[in-house]
Design a protein that fits this description.
The complex is a heterodimer of chains A (about 160) and B (about 750). Chain A is an alpha+beta fold and about 160 residues long. Chain A has five helices and five strands; from the N terminus they run ββαβββαααα. Classes of the chains: A alpha+beta (about 160), B alpha+beta (about 750). Chain A: Keywords: 2Fe-2S, Iron, Iron-sulfur, Metal-binding, Oxidoreductase.
Chain lengths: ~160, ~750
């Protein structure tokens, strides 16, 4: 039986192995390659997407759990040319070095800010656990605060 | 000299300041892109006055896709915000002697060399392009070129108040004669872009998830491949039962790959035998691999890394090491010493573990091979593919893409060799992506080592004798033609580096630690451990001498003078520049000011790749053996700075890379198996332990520019462990720190 879900607002259907992780459905079937493979064990967070608005590690989320689900990937964050505030903050603070983990970081931060619009440094530390091998954490933290300010409508 | 590029065009390449500079392909290149005109392979100006710069240096997170365009644009005199960047694979050829080389400067990425190699060449490229545009304008307006100037993408004739956009001139400019010999370049005082902070050019593409990385690439009809390799190092295949694997829906091929011996004539390391599963989808390939039944045979089953280290250490202490070098009368210095300090420092092997696992997309046909791969070494990729497939290098097309981290791992081409062999076997495009477990177990690890230090201090508190013995798994194992002990020592022993090189009586011994694990270059090779052990031990020496760690270092460096430094990063080590970065870091980092109990500062400085870096690290001890890195202040002298923002990014990143490595990372071997497999047992630091207050202070300099991808890393770990000692009284002499402070 086909699994039906929406991805970035578009209806999608999947009839293959229900054990397949969402990550490979996004990357290989929908060609949404902004979601990255890093570890396959839900540790690094490079594959973070939103399912029903909450951050999930797509490498460890089987398709069988997603019938009727609403999935958002990095490709669904901008509204036309207008970037999501977290994406904009990432450019403003020049967070990325190699950039590979950053789409997952942005998805994780967008989820954090949806739950907590003004997180303290301690709350950021407790909430964010995506890996960055380049060590962009100093700017990443600044990026979170800037995104929080942008979302409140503060001027950049 | 003139080198033929292809049927349509010729490249002229001239030598400028010792670098090869691509000055100009001829006008025929304009045909490549219809309305667009190419001015140099590096430069494409389109009629809408937009500039695309293609750099041969691959972007691995070091920022060269921003800094190299800055060099070109500075001389071209063009708006940087109308400039975009792409990768470019230079023509690769095999010389008459059989050596494979790029025909353009600075291909790939490694050794923090891109800026040094590009500085003159890239500016010259921009200047030549500007000259051609001015020639074209002069002809159109029938005025002497000497009456023309340029301004931000326009050629201007002030007298007649005329101006034309570069884009409008580009097509004609490509047909103008190339200037013979190098053009004069702007003096430093006229630089408008070099030395200003610029953001990363590809930031928007990154945050929107564009198709930038190797793993994102596709070709029509592409299949997916995964690898299964022996769990034991150097094991071979006894038997493969692939019936269940082939029965998995979507699995198309199961391919047994041969071992590839070291020294196969291409820049590669040995590959063990393995089995590739090729399927319609990544998931099917993974399921197929799970269903494979493989019996392995032989291999290094007797290897336990801790035993091998202990055996080598015993040899070192027993004086059985190879004497690498000796200067002065070391024994006399120790006999006459008022105090002798001794310590052992241990660092483990570590993995590269870039966030993007190794991958290559390959298509091999009767006509040739195309490979798309995230690499630090495009020339090595071309050579590897040519050699494993037995085809001429002219039939190999290499496409480089942004790398999801490099750190040295992507200097090696083992994943490319595999992908090429698989693609040849299946006849259609194949994307090979290693699992994280495969990546972790099939690495070329940073060597670990046990360092034995002895220091002699005279009655006046001066360091008079330095005895540094190293046992390590040499990086040159199976990569250098000469596997003798003297050859293995050369990548490991820091005979050129201060502080040892400043001590009149000094000696260095070496013992190789036997291991079957492949080893390779890892961010700041050699320096990454030596910078820690030497600068951490120096703190112990200063303490024994009863001196402040900064004052002791400055006294050792003494008068500002240039000393010979006869290896990569040389030819000169300046004691004055080293002292200056130590003073700067100390001044900005409040060195000497009181801190509450439980907090402390540490300092260290190290010279590598031509750049001088010192850090002051401030830590606070926490319950249960944890600690916070409260603040890092860095003093940096890397010569002329192209992009100060880029220097700051590399500094912040290298600091956190070093911190992550020091906190918990180690590769260990038991029964010939690498014991770590993924981030669950090879912990990478998350934001909660990171250094997030990093202040980068740059010494203004007119010295030739040097790279910053690596030099901030080596001194950080020493400044960190020195700070931990200041805060807690405990010396960390073995990495990772792990639970030692609990």
């Amino acid at each position: 039986m086909a699994i039906r879900l929406t991805v970035n607002g578009k209806q999608q259907s999947y009839g293959g192995d229900p054990d397949m992780p969402l990550l490979w459905f996004l990357r290989d079937e929908l060609d949404l390659i902004g979601t990255k493979f890093g570890c396959g064990i839900a540790s690094c967070g490079a594959c973070t997407v939103h399912v029903a608005g909450e951050a999930r590690r797509s490498c460890s989320t089987p398709m069988s759990e997603l019938d009727g689900a609403k999935v958002t990937t990095i490709e669904g964050m901008a509204k036309g040319d207008r970037l999501h505030p977290v994406q904009q903050a990432w450019i403003d603070e020049d967070v990325a070095q190699c950039g590979y983990c950053q789409t997952g970081q942005i998805m994780a931060v967008a989820d954090l800010l949806a739950r907590n619009p003004n997180p303290s440094d301690d709350e950021i530390d407790q909430s964010l656990n995506n890996l960055c091998r380049c060590g962009s954490y100093a700017r990443l933290r600044k990026g979170v605060h800037r995104a929080a300010a942008l979302m409140k409508g503060a001027k950049a | 000299m003139t080198i033929q590029l292809d049927r349509r065009a010729f490249l002229r390449v001239t030598a400028v300041s010792g670098a090869m500079v691509l000055t100009m392909p001829r006008g025929a290149i304009a045909a490549i892109d219809g309305a667009a005109a190419d001015i140099g392979l590096h430069i494409r100006l389109t009629p809408d006055n937009r500039l695309t710069i293609r750099t041969a240096t691959t972007e691995i997170g070091q920022g060269t896709n921003t800094s190299i365009p800055m060099l070109i644009v500075e001389e071209l005199d063009f708006p940087f915000d109308r400039t975009s960047v792409q990768n470019m694979v230079p023509p690769i050829r095999r010389t008459a002697e059989g050596r494979i080389e790029s025909q353009v400067f600075a291909g790939g990425a490694g050794g923090s060399t891109a800026i040094a190699a590009s500085y003159d060449a890239a500016r010259q490229t921009g200047a030549i392009a500007r000259n051609l545009l001015m020639q074209e304008a002069a002809a159109r307006w029938s005025v002497p070129i000497g009456e023309l100037t340029t301004a931000d993408g326009f050629v201007v004739h002030v007298a007649s108040k005329r101006r034309l956009a570069y884009g409008a001139l580009a097509g004609g400019a490509a047909g103008r004669p190339v200037p013979t010999g190098p053009l004069p370049l702007k003096p430093r005082s006229e630089h408008k872009l070099i030395g200003t902070s610029q953001k990363q050019k590809e930031a928007r593409a990154i945050v929107t998830g564009e198709r930038l990385f190797g793993i994102d690439q596709t070709m029509p009809g592409m299949l997916h491949a995964v690898m299964l390799r022996a769990p034991v190092l150097d094991a071979s295949i006894a038997k493969v039962d692939d019936s269940a694997a082939r029965a998995v829906p979507g699995v198309r091929h199961v391919i047994r790959l041969p071992a590839i011996a070291p020294d196969s004539g291409f820049r590669n390391r040995p590959l063990a035998e393995g089995v590739a599963v090729v399927a319609d989808s990544r998931w099917a390939a993974l399921k197929g691999r799970e269903a494979l039944i493989v019996e392995w045979a032989g291999g290094a089953t007797a290897e336990n890394s801790d035993e091998r280290i202990a055996a080598a250490w015993a040899d070192l202490v027993a004086g059985k090491g190879h004497r690498v070098s000796q200067t002065g009368d070391v024994d006399a210095a120790f006999s006459a010493a008022a105090k002798v300090v001794e310590a052992r420092y241990d660092a483990p092997m570590v993995a590269h573990a870039p966030m993007e696992p190794q991958n290559t997309l390959a298509h091999v046909t009767a006509e040739g091979a195309t490979v798309i791969t995230p690499t630090q070494q495009p020339v090595g990729v071309a050579g590897t593919v040519a050699d494993v497939l037995g085809i001429p290098i002219e039939k190999v097309k290499v496409v480089t893409v942004r790398c999801g981290g490099g750190f040295g791992r992507r200097l090696y081409t083992d994943m490319v060799a595999e992908a090429a062999l698989i693609a040849k076997a299946v006849g259609v495009p194949v994307k090979l992506v290693w699992t994280r477990e495969c990546d972790m177990a099939t690495d070329l690890y940073r060597p670990g080592g046990a360092h034995r230090f002895r220091a002699a201090i005279d009655a006046g508190g001066t360091l008079t004798g330095w005895d540094h013995g190293i046992a390590s798994q040499s990086r040159r194992y199976r990569s250098a033609p000469d596997q003798g002990i003297a050859s293995l020592a050369t990548s490991e022993v820091a005979i050129h580096d201060h502080p040892g090189a400043l001590v009149p009586n000094r000696r260095y011994d070496y013992v190789p630690i036997d291991s079957a694990a492949p080893r390779g270059a890892w961010r700041a090779p050699g320096h990454n451990i030596n910078g820690w052990t030497m600068q951490a031990f120096l703190d112990e020496v200063a303490e024994a001498a009863g001196q402040d760690p900064l004052a002791f270092r400055l006294a050792m460096l003494g008068e500002a003078r240039d000393l010979p430094y006869e290896t990569h990063g040389g030819p000169i080590f300046s004691t004055g520049r080293m002292a200056a970065v130590l003073r700067l870091a100390a001044a900005k980092g409040d060195w000497g000011k009181p801190l509450p109990k439980g907090s402390g500062r540490g300092i260290a400085g190290h010279f590598s790749f031509g750049s001088y870096v010192a850090h002051v690290v401030q830590v606070t001890m926490k319950p249960g053996g944890a600690f916070s890195v409260d603040r890092v202040t860095s003093g940096i002298d890397c010569g002329i700075v192209v992009n100060p923002n880029g220097v700051a990014m590399q500094n912040e990143g290298a600091i956190n890379d070093a911190l992550s490595t020091a906190l918990g990372q180690a590769i260990t071997i038991r029964g010939g198996q690498v014991e770590q497999s993924n981030f669950a047992d090879y912990p990478m630091m998350r934001i909660d332990r990171a250094a997030t207050l990093v202040e980068t202070h740059i010494v203004p300099s007119d010295a030739p520019p040097r790279g910053m991808g690596e030099p901030s890393l080596p001194p950080f770990t020493a400044a960190l462990t020195n700070a931990i000692h200041a805060a807690s009284g405990k010396r960390i002499r073995s990495l990772p720190i792990g639970e030692q402070l609990a």
